């Protein structure tokens, strides 16, 4: 396929190209770790899965450059750095509060070191730098692609519910290599895997709602994603704290789905009445 026909094909199928590149970029970082027998552990800086987490961002940039050129890239980066979104920022401390309640409920002492033991990040970085690194790779690296590119395009002709569920179908298997290289994923039982998948679907719904409500702020969903991971995927947050945070997200997703269904139930009949002959 010559360059121009290839570019034309990409422009006709931007989502397919994005998803394919996101898998390619991420898995090309993770599969060598698997082949070499490496294990990504909390608080240990090598091997690390972090570069692979930026795969969706790289896929979004490449696809946008081909499909929309420089104007599209400028619009994409404006969405990534959009921060004037009002009260929507309050959703981030809500997640942190849920994790804090879970930690207090256990009665166990919580240390900053325990909270900063993040997979693939050396604990020597300390809490502040660890949060910054995770925000860049795990937050922006993922969300600029999943929400900033894919969700934005899918919402043009799909409902929020359909968009979030379809995206989750691509997001879940994207994690597959991590179940073989991350110590925190290797021990998942079938029940834990089902719970993790339900949590990810719920997260997809909540993140799509946040993204739409904030007029496409990647910074918001990246911060929210980072806060959720720290309150559910660190040693200090294991057990009750992770359960409290995950339950909150699942309940929020259910409320959003009910609200979206209620809105569509009112809007669709009204549209039909307007279009019916008098």
UniProtKB/TrEMBL annotation:
Q: GO molecular function, one example? A: metallopeptidase activity
Q: Where is the CAAX prenyl protease 2/Lysostaphin resistance protein A-like domain?
A: 126-230
Q: Sorted alphabetically, which keywords does the UniProt record give?
A: Hydrolase, Membrane, Metalloprotease, Protease, Transmembrane, Transmembrane helix
Per the record, the domain of life is Bacteria
One Pfam match, by short name? Rce1-like
TM segment ranges: 15-33, 53-73, 85-108, 120-140, 160-181, 193-211, 218-234, 240-258
Looking at the keywords, is DNA damage present? no
InterPro entries in the cross-refs: MmRce1-like (IPR042150), Rce1/LyrA-like_dom (IPR003675)
According to UniProt, the name of this protein is CPBP family intramembrane metalloprotease
The organism's lineage is:
Bacteria, Bacillati, Actinomycetota, Actinomycetes, Micrococcales
């Amino acid at each position: 396929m010559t360059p121009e026909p290839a570019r034309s094909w990409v422009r006709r199928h931007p989502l397919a190209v994005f998803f394919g590149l996101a898998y390619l970029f991420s898995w090309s970082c993770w599969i060598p770790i698997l082949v070499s027998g490496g294990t990504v552990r909390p608080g240990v800086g090598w091997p690390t899965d972090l570069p692979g987490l930026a795969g969706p961002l790289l896929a979004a940039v490449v696809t946008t450059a081909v499909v929309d050129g420089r104007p599209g890239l400028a619009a994409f980066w404006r969405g990534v750095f959009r921060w004037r979104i009002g009260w929507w920022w309050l959703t981030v401390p809500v997640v942190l509060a849920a994790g804090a309640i879970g930690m207090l409920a256990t009665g166990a002492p919580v240390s900053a070191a325990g909270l900063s033991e993040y997979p693939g990040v050396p604990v020597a970085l300390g809490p502040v730098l660890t949060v910054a690194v995770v925000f860049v790779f795990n937050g922006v690296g993922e969300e600029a692609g999943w929400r900033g590119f894919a969700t934005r395009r899918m919402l043009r002709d799909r409902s929020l519910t359909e968009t979030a569920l379809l995206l989750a179908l691509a997001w879940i298997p994207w994690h597959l290599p991590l179940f073989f290289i991350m110590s925190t994923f290797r021990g998942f039982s079938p029940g834990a895997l089902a719970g993790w998948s339900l949590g990810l679907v719920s997260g997809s719904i909540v993140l799509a709602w946040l993204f739409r409500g904030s007029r496409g702020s990647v910074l918001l969903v990246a911060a929210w994603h980072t806060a959720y991971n720290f309150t559910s995927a660190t040693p200090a947050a294991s057990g009750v704290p992770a359960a409290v945070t995950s339950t909150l997200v699942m309940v929020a997703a259910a409320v959003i789905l009910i609200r979206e269904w209620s809105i569509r139930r009112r809007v669709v009949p009204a549209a039909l009445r307007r279009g019916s002959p008098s």
